[in-house]
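Q: Structure tokens for this one, please.
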Amino acid sequence: MQGPALAFSLSASNSRIAPPEKPIHLVNADSAASGVQCPGAYFRWDVGSIFKTYPFIIHDASSHHRPRYTLLSTDFVTSIIRVQSIQCSGFASLAGGCCDACRTVDSAVEVVEKWAQQSFGKKSIDRLNHAQLEAKLNALSRQLKAEQKHNYWTSLKVARKRETALTELFDLLSANNVPGLPRLLSTAKKEGWSARKTTQKSQLAIEGKYHARNYTEFDRDLAILIYELGGGAALYALNKAPTMLPSRFTIAEERRAQNLRITVGDVKMSDIMENIQILFRDAPASELGPVLHTISQDEISGDGRL
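A: Here is the predicted structure, written as tokens:
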């Protein structure tokens, strides 16, 4: 690419860019007497429309790509720009010309022209012109639409896959009595099982190969009650049923903790003291010291066969 054309030949009559009425830089009287005011240098902008191709942002105070000249004015019809070197002395030795500093900014203008003709690529945004910013915006918009379309189809595929898995799980649960289903679902929620894994565990539970043993306090209390009232046979039956209550071995520890001594015949103080020890052995000590408790007793009939 050829360097920018220095437009010194433009006269004030045919140029739409008139020299400034006042000096750009203040100079002392001796310097002003030795020359005329420097109007800056004129260059033809051959990249394209100045509106769209000149990177005006580079002259912003916050830009990291500020050139070594200042843009004084532009003629959008003739594509002429008037610039002034940041080292301009403020006066020229010849009328119609410019100072030496402004005359040598052609290389800086040429660099800016190269910037304006390049693709936006990964360049900093504070050196792009309007056309480059527009091209970058269009490219990013196309990329965003493509990603949104890809994400849409990916999300739709995942949603359909999950729907199929949930349908399989619902069909399995609705057609079978899954042993210990509440505890199985509780475990699935706690451990974050997927619908497919929950279906697999439910199938294993139906086949008797998986037993959810996260028994609650209510399950254990109910099993103890069934065992005390109905005996081991009743508890065994409910352990094998879909309810899957805890087995006799599972509740053995709880039963020992609350295995009250039953008095047969006359009331025995030793039995009462033993029962008090069982019920209150884990109670925390009171800050008030010993306290009184009311003990009630009742008489029931029992079946010796149990």
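A few notes: Confidence is low (pLDDT under 50) at residues 7-33. Residues 70 and 84 are 5 Å apart (CA to CA).
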